[in-house]
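Consider what follows.

. . .
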Amino acid sequence: MRRIFIKITPFFILTLLGLIATIVEIVLLLLSKDKGELATGILLILVIIFSSFLLLDRYLIKKFEYKKIILSEIIALLILPFLVLYISRETKIVIETQQPYYILVYSDKGISKDKIKSGGLFDHSLTLKNDNIIRLKYDLLNENHFSVIAPTNWNGHKTKHLDTIVNFQKIKIEMYSNNLSDETRDSIFKKLLPTPVRNH
């Protein structure tokens, strides 16, 4: 029994610190005037997770050689950041324009994922300046973690969408506008419209 508690591992230290920090957060939340039930519930789940990891770590200490566990946990902790980066990877197009609108046209022709340069270890990013009509490959709509980032100086935006088929080709048009009247927005949008199949 004494062996279980004396032998400290990296995983044990991290999970213990996480458990203590979570318990402190719960106490502070309960003492505050704004007692968020959702936040408290999430923190309680974290307590259960950290406690389970602590028990698992102590179980492994009892079953396996101490040096092997230390080495395995160090390797796992080195791999973990790369795994997190991979899971949270993004493919994004950043729009920079002085115009109050931009339009995305998804079809068989346009920018594909392989034309979006690497912007990090696993991320891909492409910045487009002064392009108001951006043609993208339709396949990007099915790409995980793909997003188009609106100009940073916008204070929100309105959207308008069209799904249509032209010459047996699926086309999706999305218009994003900032501080445009509905009449102006509709007028710009209509200039691009092919014969629609569905408009919404």
The CA atoms of residues 115 and 126 lie 8 Å apart. The two ends are 67 Å apart (CA to CA).
